Amino acid sequence: MSILVNKETRVLVQGITGREGAFHTEKMLEYGTKIVAGSTPGKGGQVVQGIPVYNSVTEARAKHEIDASIIFVPPAAAPDATLEAAHAGVPLIINIAEGMPVLDMMRVVKEIKSLPGVRLIGGNCPGLITPGECKLGIMPASTFKAGRVGMISRSGTLTYEASAMLAAAGIGCSTVVGIGGDPIIGTTFIDLLPMFNEDPDTDAVVMIGEIGGADEEMAAEWISKHMKKPVIAFISGRTAPKGKRMGHAGALIMGNVGTAESKLEAMAKANVPVADTMDQIVELTKKTLGL
Amino acid sequence: MKLHEYQAKELLARFGVPVPAGKVAFTPEEAKAIAVSVGKMTVIKAQVHVGGRGKAGGVKLAKDANEAFDRASDILGMDIKGLTVKKVLVAEAVDIAKEYYCGLIVDRNVQSYTLMVSKEGGVDIEEVAANNPDAITRFAIDPIRGLRPFEAREVALKAGLEGNINKIASMMVGLWNTCVGVDASLAEINPLVVTTAGDIIAADAKIDLDDNALSRHPELMAYRELEAEHPLEVEASAFGFAYVKLDGYIGVIGNGAGLVMTSLDVVARVGGKAANFLDIGGGAKADIVYNAVKLVLKDPDVKGVLINIFGGITRADEVAKGVIRCLEEGILTKPVAMRVAGTAVEEAHVLLEGKPINIYPTMMQAATSLVNEVNAAGGKA
Lengths: 291, 381
Hints:
The complex is a heterodimer. Chain A is α/β, with parallel strands linked by helices.
């Protein structure tokens, strides 16, 4: 029915006592997300939105079964909070923080890879949502409709935009994952495409890429070899100049690496249709699904 | 944040990397004094944030202090690719036997830094990468363990570098220590020179700092040169906006990096060209929108403004309020097209009713109408 999260997913909120943490805990609870515990060092024993707060992830884990954690702490502390969750054995960690030092994230991603069974999503991402079941992120709930299209995106707002457009056309999503706009992220297209490929409740995948790096090129290669389901792509930043960071730390063309042309070429080679505009995502998805 | 060569060399020297004796000079007199203290032939190098200084005449040799004065006089005030040279590095000239390349880049494909080493030093590495990729040896560094001397030696040998291999490897490790010590997103020694006497020295260097890590290196903030940045970029950073000045004529404001990037693409698609990238971020209130519109309109290149907001956490009515304030204060001197969707869009429509601001349901419609209007009015020229 989805990948990674569903209505059974038991969630921990790290940094639950902060302004953002408390606000989004409320929003996630409203959506029906099964939040079971929160943590903030030094605030153990408090209760936020009816959720018990612990001093550490380990303390929370001692009292509750936890399937996933979402982190609401400032960017300087977020890499450490990510490792705390990873070492406490939380299998799925969502890091939404924007502005973390790139070296810290290299070290975090490397360390997490050595811990079997732990997956990091982000940083600098909106999180993920299985519409109607579990919202594990900061996305506006109203734009997502349950259905059978999987979505993976480097951009938060484009995820909302594309989901809303699909929803307006009557097309819903199985799971939507915002993988983040940073150069070093825990999970990328080629980690998620296999999951959607195997998910019986996903019929097609929309992938929203952008300039910077070669993740889209690697995804195209994987798709051409292994993907059994149709994929529709969109690439943002086609007119962005070289050498300028376009908002996202990872949206940067360095020399000849990371250009939109290279990504479009790779998609064409893998026979992945690319939408030239956001509206075309809907048209292409409809066409692919025979709607 | 991009550093000048002299700043990069100061940092490298701090981490034990040998660099030629020298200092930065702001006047020919200072250049002369530095040349006197160096006491040998010097090289006078323009310090501007642009490549190709040598070809542009911004790098000259001086055999004595008087020549250093003359060459510094020539270079100071020179225009290199639109930038005025305000300072020069006066450094000991080195006797070059061999010139190599050694650099560290953030490489998302290996989720770490990649060390790149090449025998083809002293030239633009991007050209080498494009024309002769096999001339570059790459090594993904374990970000936790760091670059170890034996690894550096292996890379140097594989790349075919000749000279004292221990000293060369030691320079690579020094470059790594500098890179992680200052949180660089790019660190290069180019050329890494083997001198005729067999010494290894970093004859030129380039460092870009990771802006996200600057807060833990407060001492490096002294390297920031506000006057070298576009004034609108400086103002935008004070507001916390992600703003990039571009070379078109349509101002673009939106929420979310992806959405703004896509807005630039749409503007180009319908026959326009964006004058800027401006992301107001998530959850913006009326005053933030007001400041964003005001900032974009300060740019004389801007002939019209596209505001593209997808209301999620950001409320469309707040955006409308910000734009209305601009209108009331008489700031809206250029055509504005707004596309708002999502949260509180009905309220936004009510607020904007009867106001001379065009509001559209899709970004394509908003961009098309705006670009047509501006182009028809001769804005493109």
